[in-house]
Write a structure and sequence with these properties.
The complex is a heterodimer. By secondary structure, chain A is mainly α. Chain A has helices at about 1-5, 10-15, 15-50, 55, 75-85, 85-120, 125-135, 140-150, 160-185, 185-195, 200-210, 215-230, 230-235, 245-255, 260-280, 285-295. By secondary structure, chain B is mainly alpha-helical. Chain B has 15 helices and no strands. At the A-B interface, α2, α3, α6, α7 and α8 of A face α1, α2, α3, α5 and α6 of B.
């Protein structure tokens, strides 16, 4: 194969140096054009969020590039949104929702995945097949009955209501991913641990969990972004009370009440985006893996 | 034998399974299994409920509340499993190994039953009942969904969404992945990050970002601050009220989702392109194929299964799109979609019958995919 590459036919058909350089530039320009189109929306929001309100609503944000010396930057918009518009509180609410709603399904799914992979019990096969089928159920199917259930048990509007709902909606994917990974660990390792007298619980905590860190991380990032960015579940089960309101809902409300105050809207939007973007940039590798494996979620 | 069950190894089946010489499973075992399955979820729900009440009463220090929520969520649930395992070790020897798997898997099954299975069945039932869920109405809700003008427009729009958004996401994502593949690896990584980053942004956040892009001010209400209208007025054109232009406003909303989903398509397809064996590509080049022909005739056929996976995943996301329409237009100006109508019908019009019916419509469309998933999984299991 490598010899064939050097063959005369190949050399003859090679495009001229000029057209190759031209192609290179064309490729680079196309890439650059797409990147610019993709970045402009976020860039506009970022720049506007640091400009004084009067200026944002009077001139286009792109005018900052033509008078760079004007020095008209401010943190006031962030101050206003975080304090008087309640985004600070909403940010903390989102954290109190997101972290348990990420950790609880992982814990429950990890135990279940271990059982599906390494324990024998009646119904093991068909229960797992049911979980595979549940992967694509739209969560809209659960909203109405679950809301009625929550109202009956007086759970509606509480944090646990949302933790549990996200746990339920995230479990099929979590179990599916973790079971595939945990099931592929070498069986010889499990057996020798058993021979050494380890119980299932010890094997799980001391052997399986440490070895599964990559897959646990990918699911954690996936679920974290999903819950943080969720509007529907929080809207239905938690509601818009300022005390419990999450950050996506705060942004939605700001959009309703101050729809043309772009200095506030852009700052608010950027506050909601900051944490997921940071998580994403820091852990991109795991995120990509989770996305690839999780592309069947419903 | 019984005394050493804990250490027993049976190579063909996973360890811990019942061995043939043990007595048959009796009622006690079944009850114990049911019991251990229920204990963790019930204790968790009760515990979380009280924790949640405390969390919400605590007005003083929000940081402390966050820390407490994390502690309860993280340690609490794991602690329940530890306690359950400790209890099982107190059981009579003969029950232990038969009951233990259910302490591991039971809580998950119970939660799936409460949060997915029961609601799904219940929603199907509600779709055959009236707006308050008290009387049976047969197929009335379905007739109404397929004749009411609002829901018909929603169905039409949703169909347009599931064709157009996946198409452009895949085409742009594939183009970008193929071109970036030809760059130096550093330039490739950097440029891909920019396309991928919107994946981390919420639909609500993205909606605000794009409302700013589409911003429109009627004449006499100041300079245009939306970049599109800024551009139009800059070249001497009239500004356009983008979100009011029926039916084109639907396309302007679709652009937002294309912006969000292209990164996903690009990442998966880029990985697929890189896994096409170099030998096949070289062979085609030696045969005199141009780069375009190589891409068209060799690369695309080799990654067709990835294209299908990406397209179906995007289709599912698009089919359930709610937030974008809800925030951008509230479903007005002819932009309603099925998932948004489902919420509107249930929460605004208080009609659980129509709401449930629309949810069932959402479900019916993904059933072929559910079957395909199960089939693919069963094939994989055979080759494991």
């Amino acid at each position: 194969m490598t010899a064939a590459v050097e063959s005369p036919t190949f050399q003859k058909d090679r495009p001229s140096l000029f057209s190759r350089i031209f192609d290179r530039w064309l490729i680079k320009l196309t890439i650059l054009a797409i990147v610019i189109v993709w970045v402009i929306p976020t860039l506009g929001v970022l720049i506007s969020s640091f400009r004084p309100g009067g200026v944002v609503n009077a001139t286009g944000w792109w005018t900052v590039f033509t008078n760079l010396g004007s020095n008209e930057w401010t943190f006031e918009n962030y101050d206003a949104v975080l304090n008087s518009e309640g985004f600070g509180n909403a940010f903390l609410n989102s954290l109190s929702i997101t972290i348990p709603a990420t950790v609880i399904p992982i814990t429950i799914a990890a135990f279940a995945a271990y059982a599906f992979a390494w324990m024998e019990f009646p119904g093991r096969q068909w229960i797992f097949v049911t979980i595979v089928a549940l992967l694509v159920i739209p969560l809209q199917m659960s909203l109405i009955p679950l809301l009625k259930l929550y109202v009956n048990f007086d759970l509606n509007g509480t944090f646990p209501a949302v933790w549990l709902a996200h746990t339920g909606f995230g479990l099929p994917l979590a179990i599916y991913l973790l079971r595939n990974y945990i099931g592929s660990l070498p069986s010889s390792m499990m057996e020798s641990a058993r021979i050494d007298g380890a119980t299932h619980f010890e094997i799980f905590t001391k052997l399986v969990v440490p070895l599964s860190v990559p897959v646990l991380a990918s699911f954690a990032i996936f679920q974290f972004l999903w819950v943080w960015n969720d509007l529907l579940v929080a809207l239905v089960f938690l509601g818009g009370e300022p005390k419990v309101r999450v950050i996506t809902l705060a942004l939605r409300d700001l959009n309703g009440s101050r729809g043309e105050q772009w200095h506030l809207l852009t700052a608010g939007a950027f506050i909601t985006m900051a944490l997921p973007i940071a998580v994403f940039l820091g852990l991109q590798r795991y995120f990509v893996r989770g996305l690839t494996a999780g592309s069947v979620k419903g | 034998m019984v005394a050493t069950t804990d250490r027993q190894v049976s190579p063909p089946s996973p360890p811990g399974g019942p061995s043939p010489d043990e007595p048959k499973t009796n009622l006690t075992t079944h009850l114990l299994r049911l019991g251990v399955s229920l204990v963790v979820p019930i204790l968790a729900i009760v515990g979380l409920y009280y924790a949640g009440t405390v969390l919400l009463d605590e007005d003083a220090n929000r940081i402390a509340v966050v820390v407490m929520a994390i502690v309860v969520g993280v340690i609490g649930v794991f602690g329940l499993y530890v306690g359950m395992d400790w209890l099982i070790n107190k059981l009579p020897e003969r029950h232990r190994d038969r009951v233990r798997p259910f302490a591991f898997v039971g809580p998950a099954i119970v939660i799936l039953a409460i949060f997915l299975l029961y609601p799904t069945v219940n929603t199907v039932i509600l779709s055959f009942q009236d707006s308050t869920g008290t009387n049976w109405v047969g197929f009335d809700n379905y007739t109404s969904v397929f004749t009411n003008s609002d829901t018909l427009v929603a169905l039409r729009n949703s169909l347009a969404w599931v064709v157009i958004v996946p198409f452009f996401s895949v085409v742009i994502g594939l183009t970008f992945a193929a071109l970036a593949d030809l760059l130096s690896s550093k330039a490739e990584a950097v440029s891909k990050t920019f396309i991928f980053m919107p994946m981390a942004i919420s639909f609500v956040g993205a909606s605000i970002v794009w409302r700013f892009i589409y911003n429109f001010r009627p004449e006499g209400f100041g300079e245009q601050i939306g970049i599109l209208n800024g551009f139009l007025t800059g070249i001497g054109q009239e500004p356009i009220a983008w979100l009011l232009q029926e039916p084109w406003n639907n396309f302007y909303l679709m652009v937002i989702l294309v912006w969000l989903q292209t990164g996903f398509a690009m990442v998966i397809l880029s990985a697929a392109i890189k896994s096409v064996p170099e030998e096949i590509i070289e062979a085609a080049r030696i045969d005199g194929a141009s780069e375009w022909q190589v891409f068209r005739r060799v690369t695309i056929p080799s990654i067709s299964s990835s294209i299908v996976v990406v397209a179906t995943t995007v289709i599912i996301t698009v089919w359930k799109v709610f937030d974008i329409v809800f925030v951008m237009t509230g479903g007005r100006f002819g932009t309603q979609v099925v998932a948004e109508q489902m919420v509107t019908q249930f929460f605004t019009f208080r009609d659980s019958g129509i709401g449930a019916t629309l949810a069932v419509v959402l479900l019916l469309a993904v059933i072929p995919l559910m079957i395909a998933n199960v089939r693919r999984f069963q094939e994989q299991e055979l080759t494991r």
